[in-house]
Amino acid sequence: MRIEHFSADGFRNLENIDIDLHPELNVICGQNAQGKTNILEAIWLCTGERSFRGAKDRELIRLGGERFDIGLRFADKRRTQQIDYTLIRSEIRSKKIALNGVSVKNPSGLFGALECVVFTPEDLELSKGSPEVRRSFADLSVSQIKRSYRRVVDKYRRLLEQRNTQLKAAYQTADIGDMLDIWDIQLAQMGAYISMLRYNYCKKLEMAAQKLYSEISQGRERLEIEYHSTIYENLQGRTDYRNDLAAEYAEALKKSRAEDMRAGFTLKGVHRDDLHCKINGMYAKEYASQGQHRSIALIMKLAQAYILSEETGDAPCILLDDVMSELDAGRQEFVMSKIRDMQVIITCCGEEALRGRAAGGKVIKINSGRVI
Ligand SMILES: Nc1ncnc2c1ncn2[C@@H]1O[C@H](COP(=O)(O)OP(=O)(O)OP(=O)(O)O)[C@@H](O)[C@H]1O
Ligand SMILES: [Mg+2]
């Protein structure tokens, strides 16, 4: 997959950006706070996902501005496609998005068109950080290959909030309420489905990541990635999420209800699950060195890109935000060698650092939201 052309205006500080991209390597450079990450964020929006910075829609429109317009032309193996994405401040709830000239209702209508993998310095916390970071990673990864998944996750989250509110109310009034029973059944159905898909993804991830990790550690270390469920002992070989898995999930919710009520929130479920990484049999979270954590994070992202390539039959575009400066020379080389066949768009402050590598690529200089 190659992005051929990108334009943006009014998106954060970007002004009249209009660039033809190189099919292999693009280096966006400039000083701090000039708009480099904003460009990657605007590109990322065209995948149909939300901002990777977790920004609200209105924050994306230039301060004092009325709208932003993004245009993006890209080609996959079969054809060239065009995405037009506009947001107007006075109509913040209705984005104007079109794929090949045909308007789509929601950003999710873009799912499956442009495929990107974004890598930011925060992603280096993937192995070291909180379980929440790894759950989000898993959810994004799954949703990239199973597009209906995102809806289920969103619905689960809403339902969970309602359940938690109800739990608190029930504890105060000592009235359990019928709603809880109804919600638990729905939660269990969605939770079972989410558990199964995340588990299956982790299996694939482990396979791809193990190979890469062995390479980066010169065969000295072995990486394992396991899905840790707070509901199920073992998910291996289990596929009946509609009946068997959902029933077990519901049972677990029922069992912990009294405790949930005391706590005021739901103690078990996919919102508490985690991905456990081990190196040579030891839990990375507790035992890994700083360097090992970085390697695991890098490799999980690379594996994500590889799996996406395999599942969609086309390599995603790789968006690297300021990551290179965080890595030592060996790891920089490793990353670049592993994404050689993919289109890469990379931001950095010092253009010198990448000049050698940009031979055969394109350098785009950004200053105050404009290309110079
Ligand atoms: N809605 C907005 N309206 C106007 N300007 C904005 C808006 N949102 C962000 N900015 C500005 O965009 C700039 C930051 O852009 P960006 O994050 O892309 O910087 P960067 O070039 O990646 O910098 P760094 O090298 O520090 O990562 C800041 O100057 C910020 O004030
Ligand atoms: Mg930046």
Low-confidence stretches: none
- Judged by helices, strands and strand pairing, the structural class is alpha/beta
Assembly state of the chains shown: single chain
Report mean pLDDT, rounded to a whole number: 93
Report on this structure.
There is one protein chain. This protein has 372 residues and is an alpha/beta fold. The protein has eleven helices and 15 strands. It has helices at 36-45, 57-60, 131-145, 149-173, 178-216, 244-255, 257-263, 284-287, 290-312, 329-338, 352-355; strands at residues 2-9, 17-20, 25-29, 67-75, 80-88, 96-99, 102-104, 116-119, 223-228, 274-279, 282-283, 317-321, 344-348, 362-367, 370-371. It has a six-stranded antiparallel β-sheet with strand order 2-1-4-5-6-7, with helices on one face. A hairpin with a 4-residue loop joins strand 4 (67-75) and strand 5 (80-88). Helix 4 crosses helix 7, helix 5 packs across helix 6 and helix 5 crosses helix 9. The relative contact order is 0.18. Residues 36-37, 321-322, 347 line the site of magnesium ion.
List keywords for this structure.
single chain; 372 residues; alpha/beta; six-stranded antiparallel beta sheet; six-stranded mixed beta sheet; 21% strand; binds adenosine-5'-triphosphate; binds magnesium ion
